[in-house]
Write a structure and sequence with these properties.
The structure is a homodimer of 141-residue chains. The first copy, chain A, is α+β, with helices and mostly antiparallel strands and 141 residues long. Chain A has two domains: 82 residues, Arc Repressor Mutant, subunit A; 58 residues, 2-Layer Sandwich (Dna Ligase, domain 1), CATH 3.30.1490.190. The longest helix of chain A has 14 residues. At the A-B interface, α5 and β6 of A face α5 and β5 of B. The complex binds manganese (II) ion (2 copies) and zinc ion (2 copies). One zinc ion (ZN) binds next to loops of chain A. Chain B binds a DNA duplex (30 and 30 nucleotides) through α4.
Chain lengths: 141, 141
DNA sequence: TTGCACATGAGAATTATTCTCATGTAGGAT
DNA sequence: ATCCTACATGAGAATAATTCTCATGTGCAA
């Protein structure tokens, strides 16, 4: 139950929070902007203030329920933090997002941080390219 | 000469462009925000419109003279594209930025993109952590 | 059941960046 | 050297994303 998740992180169980969580849970695209969440909730009759969406997402992030990504160009996207850590590759044509995890890269990051005298706490890795969709392949320039 | 660089990429040689390039060249911190560039130029008597700074940086980026980075939290920073590609590690306490290059990571990225059916065109990797400065080490939380 | 700390909605405010437009100028052609 | 014109600039308005303010509502511990 999503109510549990909220209680576990010390947040009151409210309708807006539950709606946002369950939208993130069920939406077809798991990486969503605050604006999209706001709009989709509105369309399905659940009108919630945009400021509330931003507030809730920030709280979810602080609580570790959600992660935030800033892909080049586009606006900030959020996703439910279920399952293990992963990074992303984004199609520069259609915007499609795929996820991946690479043990070697993760390991190298730790080594590099240590070498430079840093205590690693986080990282952001995003690859950009053209995906294998026919429409994306036939672009000029 | 910086005039050469501008001509080579098909941009007219103008005072604002030269000033911005030479500031990027000589500044103590090589990763600078548009705002900082604007302010530092102003302080040294070279008043240039902020819009011009943004425009020039965008053109330099398009021409490959400059790269743009979006570190978490802070605003966009620019740096002169001299020397080979590298990624960054940022101290979450003091904001210090160090650079690194890791052949293994670069190589893995290519493999991963290929596996996912993408033609890799770019990537952004930034590590975050606490640097070895005494002041940064003694923070609580 | 009540009290109150916390949450919400609406809109204003803020911040970073881009756009508009009137004016200036680099640099190729003459 | 002078001219012409496409491109560049500055100032401020405009935009877009996000955050803040504040009056009002509500979860939930006592
Ligand atoms: Mn993801
Ligand atoms: Mn750098
Ligand atoms: Zn694509
Ligand atoms: Zn530090």
């Amino acid at each position: 139950m999503e109510s549990e998740e909220l209680r576990n992180v010390g947040l009151k169980v409210t309708t807006p929070r539950l709606k946002i969580l369950s939208l993130l849970e069920n939406a077809s695209e798991k990486h969503m902007t605050a604006e999209t969440i706001y709009r989709q909730l509105g369309e399905s009759g659940e009108v919630i203030g945009l400021a509330t969406v931003y507030r809730a997402l920030a709280q979810f992030e602080a609580a570790g329920l959600v992660t935030r990504h800033q892909f080049d160009g586009g606006q900030t996207v959020f996703e439910l933090e279920r399952g293990p850590h992963h990074d992303h590759i984004v199609c520069v044509r259609c915007g499609r997002v795929e996820e991946f995890y690479d043990k070697v890269i993760e390991e190298r990051q730790r080594v590099i941080a240590a070498q430079l005298g840093f205590t690693l706490s986080d990282h952001a890795l995003t690859l950009y390219g053209e995906c294998n969709d026919p429409a994306c392949r036939e672009s000029k320039a």
